[in-house]
Amino acid sequence: GQQLNQSPQSMFIQEGEDVSMNCTSSSIFNTWLWYKQDPGEGPVLLIALYKAGELTSNGRLTAQFGITRKDSFLNISASIPSDVGIYFCAGVYSGGGADGLTFGKGTHLIIQP
Amino acid sequence: EPEVTQTPSHQVTQMGQEVILRCVPISNHLYFYWYRQILGQKVEFLVSFYNNEISEKSEIFDDQFSVERPDGSNFTLKIRSTKLEDSAMYFCASSGTDSGPQHFGDGTRLSIL
């Protein structure tokens, strides 16, 4: 099946720093999604991207859909303690039905005081 | 804000028993999904459902699994004759369109003894 390579696996940063993570795939997607998961909870949608080259912001978060349709990145500016969690990229090539998402393995963000 | 709700939050079952996990998707959504997340691993797609039938399923979704939409609001996942390796978090998700963003519930933690 499709595989998403997400990096880095974990990040240890200071509060106030900017964060960048990315996902790459060997196959193309027509939708990229970024989710955040806190312990004991389900993934919460952060940003959805639908067009190659699209750059979308949600507050301090910015994500881009790569022009090759095989990659995406997520940036978080001026990190704060509540940004701690696991961030997952997910992609889908929707063929007109209810298509399942392929998830990356996640980036664990840890903010040091 | 509308949300996906799942019950129970935690289910403990003896190996070999049947379990039914329940989900109430967002009310105006038409596409429904089940995912699994083994502890410490990525989220994996199981099955999608649209128009009262399975739209797509993964290799994980074998004959042991079944899904049903018994009424206008519930969406269930049944696991027959559970195995130890079925222990995981099971997430339900829904979307309003086939390519729309999928919104997740907080999951059911299934523990097989």
Topology overview:
The complex is a heterodimer of chains A (113) and B (113).
Chain A: E1 4-7, E2 10-14, E3 19-25, E4 31-37, E5 44-49, E6 55-58, E7 61-65, E8 71-76, E9 85-92, E10 102-103, E11 107-112
Parallel strand pairs in A: 2-11
Antiparallel strand pairs in A: 1-3, 3-8, 4-5, 4-9, 6-7, 7-8, 9-10, 9-11
Chain B: E1 5-7, E2 10-13, E3 19-24, E4 31-37, E5 44-50, E6 53-57, E7 65-68, E8 75-79, E9 88-95, E10 103-104, E11 108-112
Parallel strand pairs in B: 2-11
Antiparallel strand pairs in B: 1-3, 3-8, 4-5, 4-9, 5-6, 7-8, 9-10, 9-11
Description of the molecule:
The complex is a heterodimer of chains A (113) and B (113). Chain A has strands spanning 4-7, 10-14, 19-25, 31-37, 44-49, 55-58, 61-65, 71-76, 85-92, 102-103, 107-112. By secondary structure, chain A is mostly beta strands. In chain A, a hairpin with a 2-residue loop joins β6 (55-58) and β7. Chain B is 0% helix and 50% strand. In chain B, 35% of the residues are buried. The mean pLDDT of chain B is 94. Chains A and B meet through β4, β5, β9 and β10 of A and β4, β5 and β10 of B.
In which range does the helix fraction of chain B lie? under 10%
Radius of gyration of chain B: 13 Å
Which structural class best describes the helix and strand composition of chain B?
mainly beta
Give me the secondary-structure category of chain A: mainly beta
Number of helices of chain A: 0
Largest interface: A-B, 28 and 30 residues
Strand percent estimate of chain B:
over 45%
Can I get a quick summary?
The complex is a heterodimer of chains A (113) and B (113). Helices cover 0% and strands 53% of the residues of chain A.
Feature tags:
heterodimer; A: 113 residues; mainly beta; five-stranded antiparallel sheet; 11 strands; 53% strand; B: 113 residues; seven-stranded mixed sheet; 50% strand
